[in-house]
Amino acid sequence: MERFSIYATMDLGNKIMFDAIDYLLRQKIMVACYKMDDYTKLLEWIRSNYGDNVDLSEETERGTWKVINRRNGKILLDLEDIGGYNGIPVVDLDRLKDIETLSYNTDRVTLDGKNLVWKRPILPHEPIHITNEISNLLRLQDVDGVVKIKYIVSSEGKEYGFLMEELQKITESPSHTEIIEMFKTVNRIHSLGTSHGDIKPENIMRNSEGQIIFIDLAFRDHTPEYMIPGTERLESEKYMMSDWYTLHITINKLNQLR
User: Fold this and answer.
1) If DSSP codes are grouped into helix, strand and coil, which group holds residue 176?
2) CB atoms within 10 A of CB 127
3) Nearby residues of 70 by Cβ (< 8 Å), 6 or more positions away
4) Which residues are 78's β-sheet partners?
5) Residue ranges of the Protein kinase domain (predicted)?
6) pLDDT tens track for 99-126
7) In CA terms, which of 60, 87, 146, 157 is 20 to 30 Å from 70?
8) What CA–CA distances, in Å, run from 194 to 103, 116, 123?
9) C-alpha span between 30 and 37 (Å, rounded)
C-alpha cells in the first residue's frame, strides 16, 4: 500500500510548494516550501524508509512531481494495518447494490436491503477537508448525535471507503429538548479536542429513529453566511467559538420550519 501522497509544484525560482498526506494517519503532515535539493533528499528518505510503498511519477511538462498510489490514484489501505478502525465491521464491495451517485465521492447503496451512504476512497488530489472529515468521524465514533460509520468497504482485502447511516433532512422545527441535545453534542465534540467547522441547517439531519444528527465534520472554514461577522478565515483555536456562533444561527433557521 502507498502510505504517503505527495504533491509538489515547482515555481520559477526552482522551489516547490510541498504537500504531504499520511493516509495511514489520515492527516496532512506537512505544507512547506523546499529547494529542489531538499525535495530530492526528502524523497530519498521516504524511499529508504518505505521502499515500494510510494510511487514517484515522472516530472510533467508543467514541472509537477507526484507521489501517488499505483491503483489509479485510489487510496487502498491494508485493513490489518488500521488500528483505529477496530470494532467497525468489514463488508465486501461486491455486496453493495443499487448504486446511486450523490456527489463526486458519495453514493447511496443498499446492503442486504438496508439503505446506506457510501463514501468512496479518498484521492491524492482531493481537498484536505475530506481527510479531516474521516479523521473526525473515526475520533467521534462513540459520540452520540454524530453520524456513524457503519462498515468499512473492502475490495481485495483493502479499504475501499466507508458505509454511513442514511439520514433525512429536517422538515420541522426541533423541539426544546432536541435543541438542548444539539448543544450537548457540540460540547461533546469539543471535549475530544476537535470541532465541527461548518455547522449549518444542511449539516444537521435526522436518523431513522428521529434523532438529530450532525454531519460533514470536515473542520474547514465555515460557510460565509454562517461565519462570525468580520472574519474571513479562522485560526484553529477560534473554531470552537465559531461553532457556538453558527449553532445559534442554525437553530434560528431551523425554528422557521413548520
Assistant:
1) helix
2) 11
3) 2, 55
4) 158
5) 54-258
6) 888 876 788 999 998 999 998 765 545 5
7) 87
8) 26, 26, 23
9) 17
